[in-house]
């Protein structure tokens, strides 16, 4: 049981399947280019590293409060570490309180020293496999498959960009999960990095929520994304705070009211999109 009362379960499904995986929960059985049996490390008190077995941790709303919306949360950390608490579990707990079924994605750290991974080959697979897994099990989790979104912080925003705006990677060992659409239904970017943003967007780009501080270099990424959304005539909402820098997480450590209250701007957007409303 999470501290907020929502039910939390751990699912350690690897991001692609291979022959020899027989467990009913092993839909992400590992086939990795690194030491898959090594334990995760803690580079800092607030982060984890050495992730070679990607996983989703689900934060389910209290019984009777679910609204059918799901959000996959991708924490930041520069692909060298994962700020899984402040930019993963904490936002997931908040979303669960709103009736959203939240999933925290532990993706592989392609820039970690000695990982043997590349951002071009491996990161998009992790991004879309997460969406496909949630969508393929939507009935089990009582989720509307048309209401599966993503929320990404910093490098996690690049994970969101790869899934929401990039081409679908070719599965090396395709299975039934790969038949599901790997693109999120909506996307939320918080001070994202530039990787994964294409030169041009199309009108069917997922509805977007963008937020950044004006004194953060990521403001250039947000401005670029906002311009491309406008040019594509795709729906977007943009918030540029006057200050706050980079990495303010959920805002609760800041002395700036706009930063402390930024999650409410996201809640307002979700409300206006009808994503907090229970299905009829």
What distinguishing features does this structure have?
280 residues, alpha/beta, Rossmann fold, 6 helices, 24% helix, globular, disordered N terminus
Concise description?
With 280 residues, the chain is an alpha/beta fold. It has one domain (7-272): Rossmann fold, CATH 3.40.50. The chain is 24% helix and 16% strand.
Rg is 17 Å
Query: What is the makeup of the main sheet?
Result: 8 strands, mixed
Give the CATH superfamily.
Alpha/Beta hydrolase fold, catalytic domain
CATH class: Alpha Beta
Low-confidence stretches: 1-35
Q: Helix segment count? A: 6
CATH architecture: 3-Layer(aba) Sandwich
CATH topology: Rossmann fold
- Give the SSE order as H and E letters: EEEHEHEHEEHEHH
């Amino acid at each position: 049981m999470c501290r907020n009362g929502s039910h939390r379960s751990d699912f350690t499904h690897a991001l692609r399947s291979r022959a020899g995986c027989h467990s009913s929960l092993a839909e992400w059985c590992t086939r990795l280019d690194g030491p898959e049996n090594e334990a995760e490390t803690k580079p800092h008190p607030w982060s984890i590293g050495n992730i070679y077995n990607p996983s989703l941790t689900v934060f389910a709303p209290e019984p009777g409060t679910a609204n059918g919306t799901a959000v996959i949360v991708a924490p930041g950390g520069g692909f060298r570490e994962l700020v899984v608490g402040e930019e993963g579990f904490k936002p997931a707990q908040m979303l669960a309180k709103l009736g959203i079924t939240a999933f925290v994605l532990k993706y592989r750290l392609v820039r970690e020293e000695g990982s043997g991974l590349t951002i071009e080959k491996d990161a998009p697979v992790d991004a879309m496999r997460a969406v496909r897994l949630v969508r393929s099990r939507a009935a089990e989790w009582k989720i509307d498959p048309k209401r599966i979104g993503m929320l990404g912080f910093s490098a996690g925003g690049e994970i969101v960009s790869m899934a929401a705006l990039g081409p679908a990677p070719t599965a090396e060992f395709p299975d039934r999960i790969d038949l599901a659409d790997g693109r999120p239904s909506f996307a939320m970017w918080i001070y994202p990095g530039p990787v994964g943003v294409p030169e041009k967007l199309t009108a069917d780009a997922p509805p977007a929520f963008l937020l950044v501080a004006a004194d953060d270099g990521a403001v250039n990424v947000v401005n670029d994304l906002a311009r491309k959304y406008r040019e594509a005539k795709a729906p977007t909402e943009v918030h540029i705070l006057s200050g706050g820098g980079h990495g303010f997480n959920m805002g609760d450590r800041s002395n700036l009211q706009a930063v402390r209250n930024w999650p409410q701007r996201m809640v307002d957007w979700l409300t206006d999109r009808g994503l907090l409303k229970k299905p009829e």
